[in-house]
């Protein structure tokens, strides 16, 4: 049995995958090895996934973005799924999760793995449930068979909701939105109807054995994540998190890589606390968060509500962000939804990296700003997060080639282009030469109008009354004749 990345890292080996990751992240290969060995980062890399270009997920590295693809009972086909995979990779997904629940599951999964240069994740209980008439009929053997088959097919990481325990279920009573994770709700139903403990928990070490054989990475699912702001950070969520911490250590003992999934719907002021708590409870295992949505009121725009939470989570130390599309809560996303969701999340991830001071993260911003100030439109498009959209929007109003060097665009127009005006006001060396060390700025007529606003600083020179259009006002805000 070939060892896993974490086993090889612990043995002091820098693998080819670690070398490649070091190159992609501009980091020292030995640092990559240390991070993988300690479980602080994972390199999802199934032995059978030949098309993979290895990548790393960990808080010390660029924040990654996952895109969910896959069909449902109602819609999509193999060709449509391949188009979604292509769109996801094209628009910058670092990993994809095949969440198919419709027809041809094996064919779609194998095709995705064969064609995907990024790690492929799955939620095996989605397939297992299709083999039985009632969720209560799921068996340990069926779950393990499905997990093993998907591992053999080359899946790099799997969401396993092993942390949903019998003891946790009463803690969800009284929630506004109950259990919203698909896997979590299926397992809760199984536990209720069988009166037995979660089979993914009782057979967790068997799953570890399968994962160790194929080097599948755990994505420990948060089946009790909050589905609304009202349910965020409650007892059920944190009880499950404690179990996920325990399972993280069990998986590490078996030489299996682990990341841990997180919420969901969380008010913005609780996002950082959630990340810090997971990092403490799970000994620094990478945190993979879904959003979180920071408000519940914007169906149709949940790529935005969640990208706000994702940026905050990334800044606080989350390692990977699971994207949300505008279709969240409303329907299965199509190609354009994948594009919009990925754009929102790549912005969130990059904003987090800049704020966290990741080495080199801001170089991209600086390069684009330089191109913008130089009116180098083609370079600005090339550097844009979504080059096709940037150029399309520009060319809607100024399509001609001559406008690719123009010192304005249609936003402010030629006369009011502030960057052009600014450049025309400067000398060739970029300085405002009329102003030098000898200039007495206090003597400038503008200094008068730049006095501090009334009420904020020294008010000694403020008159007691001011008359405007025949009405006299006092500094306290009332009329003088009140
Ligand atoms: S016109 Fe306005 S938006 Fe366009 S380049 Fe000039 S300053 Fe920027």
Automatic annotation (TrEMBL):
Q: Give the main EC class.
A: lyase
Look up the record and name the cofactor or cofactors this protein needs: [4Fe-4S] cluster
In its UniProt record, which GO terms are filed under biological process? thiamine biosynthetic process; thiamine diphosphate biosynthetic process
**Under which name does UniProt file this protein?**
Phosphomethylpyrimidine synthase
Residues that bind substrate? 68, 97, 126, 161, 181-183, 222-225, 261, 288
A Pfam family of the record is ThiC_Rad_SAM
Q: Which UniProt keywords apply?
A: 4Fe-4S, Iron, Iron-sulfur, Lyase, Metal-binding, S-adenosyl-L-methionine, Thiamine biosynthesis, Zinc
Q: In the UniProt record, what gene is named as encoding this protein?
A: thiC
| EC code | 4.1.99.17
Q: Where is this region: Disordered?
A: 440-482
**Which residues does Zn(2+) bind?**
265, 329
Q: Which organism is it from?
A: Haloplanus ruber
Q: Which GO terms describe its molecular function?
A: 4 iron, 4 sulfur cluster binding; phosphomethylpyrimidine synthase activity; zinc ion binding
Residues reported in the UniProt entry to bind [4Fe-4S] cluster: 409, 412, 417
Q: Does the keyword Cytoplasm apply?
A: no
Coiled coil residues, start to end: none
């Amino acid at each position: 049995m070939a060892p896993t990345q974490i086993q090889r890292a612990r043995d002091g080996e820098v693998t080819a995958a670690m070398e490649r990751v070091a190159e992609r992240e501009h980091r020292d290969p030995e640092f990559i090895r240390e991070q993988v060995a300690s479980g602080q980062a994972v390199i999802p890399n199934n032995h059978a996934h030949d098309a993979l270009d290895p990548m790393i997920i960990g808080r010390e590295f660029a924040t990654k973005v996952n895109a969910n693809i896959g069909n449902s009972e109602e819609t999509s086909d193999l060709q449509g799924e391949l188009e979604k995979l292509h769109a996801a990779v094209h628009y910058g997904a670092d990993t994809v999760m095949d969440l198919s629940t419709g027809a041809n599951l094996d064919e779609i999964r194998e095709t995705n793995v064969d064609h995907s240069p990024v790690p492929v994740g799955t939620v095996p209980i989605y397939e297992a449930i299709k083999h039985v008439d009632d969720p209560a009929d799921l068996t340990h053997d069926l779950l393990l068979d499905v997990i093993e088959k998907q591992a053999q097919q080359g899946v790099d990481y799997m969401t396993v909701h092993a942390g949903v325990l019998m003891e946790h279920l009463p803690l969800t009573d009284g929630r506004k939105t109950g259990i919203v994770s698909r896997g979590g709700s299926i397992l809760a139903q199984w536990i209720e109807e069988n009166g037995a403990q979660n089979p993914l928990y009782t057979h967790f070490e068997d799953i570890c054995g399968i994962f160790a054989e194929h080097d599948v990475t755990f994505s420990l699912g948060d089946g009790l994540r909050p589905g609304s702001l009202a349910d965020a950070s409650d007892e059920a969520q944190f009880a499950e998190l404690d179990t996920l911490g325990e399972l993280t250590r069990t998986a590490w003992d078996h030489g299996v890589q682990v990341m841990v999934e997180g919420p969901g719907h969380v008010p913005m002021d609780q996002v950082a606390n959630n990340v810090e708590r997971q990092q403490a409870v799970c000994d620094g295992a990478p945190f993979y968060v879904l959003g979180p949505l920071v408000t519940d009121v914007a169906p149709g725009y949940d790529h935005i509500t969640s990208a706000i939470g994702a940026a905050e989570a990334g800044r606080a130390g989350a390692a990977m962000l699971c994207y949300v599309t505008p279709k969240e809560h409303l329907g299965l996303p199509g190609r354009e939804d994948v594009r919009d969701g990925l754009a929102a999340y790549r912005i969130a991830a990059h904003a987090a990296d800049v704020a966290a001071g990741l080495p080199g993260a801001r170089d991209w911003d600086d390069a684009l700003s330089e191109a913008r100030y130089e009116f180098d439109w083609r370079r600005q498009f090339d550097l844009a997060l979504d080059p096709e959209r940037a150029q399309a929007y520009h060319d809607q109003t100024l399509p001609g080639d001559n406008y690719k060097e123009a010192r304005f665009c249609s936003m402010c127009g030629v006369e009011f282009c502030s960057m052009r005006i600014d450049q025309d006001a400067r000398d060739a060396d970029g300085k405002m030469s009329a102003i030098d060390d000898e200039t007495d700025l206090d003597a400038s007529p503008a200094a008068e109008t730049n006095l501090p606003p009334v009420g904020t600083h020294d008010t000694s020179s403020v008159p007691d009354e001011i008359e405007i259009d025949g009405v006299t006002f006092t500094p306290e805000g009332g009329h003088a004749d009140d």
